[in-house]
Amino acid sequence: MLRPSPQHTPDVIEPHGFESEKYTGYELLRGSFKDAAISFLDKIGLLERLANDWMMIPLHGDHNSTDRYLRGALEFLEAQWVLDRKGNQYKLRDDAEVRISGSRVIHQRVATYTDVMRTVEADLEWPTEGKGRYVYDKSSVHALSWLPAVLTILKETNLTTQLTTEPGVKLTSFTEPYLGILEGLELVEIDGDSVAIATKEGKAVLKQEGFAELMLSYFRPMSDLKELFDGDKRYGKDKDVNRQPTANALATNGILKKRVAPEIAEWIASQDFEAAVDYGCGGGDMTQQTLAKAPGLDFAIGMDIHPVTVKTARQKAEEAGIGEKARFIEGNITSEADMRKLAEALEGRTTAHVINFILHESPELANAFLALHAKIFPNDTLIVSESFKIPLEIRRAHPNAQASIFDFMHEISGQTLYEFEQLKKMLDAHGYEIVEVKTHSSIRNEENHPEEGRLPTIATFMCRQKSSH
CA-CA to 376 of 20 to 30 Å: which in 92, 121, 243, 257? Predict the structure, then answer.
């Protein structure tokens, strides 16, 4: 088992690196996922064996297997320089002792993840499966556990900007516990008038509020990795454990709204389209941005499988005054009947079809959708946005980047992140030609790569059927 720290102080995972000009904030955020992975390996009896010698750990490639929880934890800790690997043999690094010191501290932190989630749900009035409210613990022992929650609270109460600009945020009964946690991490300073203002390091961390919210949405499954691996609990919607849906939707929509949708909408506006479709439209933001950038469109249709989401999107469109041009329908992207109904509604218009961050749900869904779309809409443009799996050696070269955390999340949820070239081949296999690529974010590659030494982490492909021209 993990060796207890005599002082029970938090493990110093790595120097924060605040003095570095390249400090991004992920250095602190990754701590909660690292704790979860280490605690999981300890609970299933592997950590002590990995500390003593090389250990062979064969893994199945099937994402439907519970091996995905172990594979995710091992890859994440390898990328974080906690484990070394030779083939399918793993060993705890000799210099990793400080990273796992204090068994009580790490296990206590992970044990609070569900309580942290319940507190956020209570304070933001989100739907919750839990009951009651956790009592804040501002001690440094749990500060890293609380960080994604604190950033989420600040984001959803519109306090982030206030905290990074003068005069700052006044401490209240609501804000004081959360800001106290940030003060303990030296991310804010609180003056004699009980006003908090972010430090230089704090401003860098606060910029990651959207990604922190995405991390928070996985806190429940992260705390139940052993039970999920053993099969005592099942992951997914309407099962024993699932990611927090509100946090996940708000975080994903934030990334889409700020970084992806604007560029897609501008590109649609630059072309000669008569209509647009957004698959998996959610609350309808992509549809609204498209109509705002391309007012010449006859209309835009948002399609989603969830009736509540469709209702919400309609309400937002009415509030924005675009109800006549923004249409929302319920439908399944792999149902031929639903897709033919969509085709009837378009009435042969030249259409841009957009699908953002959905194909990674599974290769089966991706292939079914691409084949059906090529069949129903052979002459229309398909716009595909995805996040990409980054090779492990690149993740290891950049342990502070979000790529490792992102990969761990998708392993837990059984989703399949594709590598950049892998998605291109999938599109090609269904007869799609990529006419343009827009890269929204990237990571530096240590090896030669066509895109100036960087690998795309989020990109959009503008495609059309090869037979259409």
Answer: 257
Q: Is 81 exposed, middle or buried (0-12, 13-18, 19+ CB in 10 A)?
A: middle
pTM of the model: 0.84
Show the domains of the chain with their CATH numbers: 26-243 (no CATH), 252-468 (3.40.50.150)
> pLDDT digits over 51-92, tens only?
889 999 988 766 668 899 999 999 999 999 999 999 999 999
Q: How far apart are CA 443 and CA 389, in angstroms?
A: 11
Pairing of strands 169-170, 195-198: antiparallel
Q: Which helix (H) or strand (E) holds 444?
A: strand 432-444
On whether the CB atoms of residues 88 and 59 are closer than 8 A, the answer is: yes
Q: Which helix (H) or strand (E) holds 92?
A: strand 89-92
Tokens representing 196 are: 């908090």
Cα 175 to Cα 183: distance, rounded to the nearest angstrom = 12
Cβ atoms < 10 Å from Cβ of 196 = 24
